[in-house]
Amino acid sequence: MLNLIAVLLAVTAGNCPAELSQLAWLAGSWSGQDGKTEMEEIWTPPKGGVMLGLHRDVTGGKLAGFEFLRIESAAGGLVYQAQPQGRPATPFRCVEVTENRVVFENREHDFPKRIVYWLGPDGELHARVEGEPGGKTEAMEWSWRKTAR
Fold it and tell me: Domains in the chain, start-ordered, CATH in brackets?
């Protein structure tokens, strides 16, 4: 009963009492297409308290964008650190973990405020970002298939 209360308090406080090993399903090399843009997202397996990630978009044979990513174990739970275009990291705290889904939030950030990853029943990795830039709700979503490296 005491453990259940601790879990409920952690979730209410915005913390996610999850272990990094619960995100092992995210590890691997993933690729997909969005119109004329080729997308790649690569995640290392959980090790040393961190998963490292890299995202790259290529359009017409030229780099269209990239992002350095990491998910790390921290006090209070897991933290997703996003560095689009190599800028300083923006932290998003884990707020939910299930068997094949994880949700991170940073309510103070302009956009996105929420990042969601999930593994679909077809084996595709999906990602969605959500927020309210300018007070208007917006979301973007991507899907990738696992590739051999």
Answer: 18-147 (2.40.128.20)
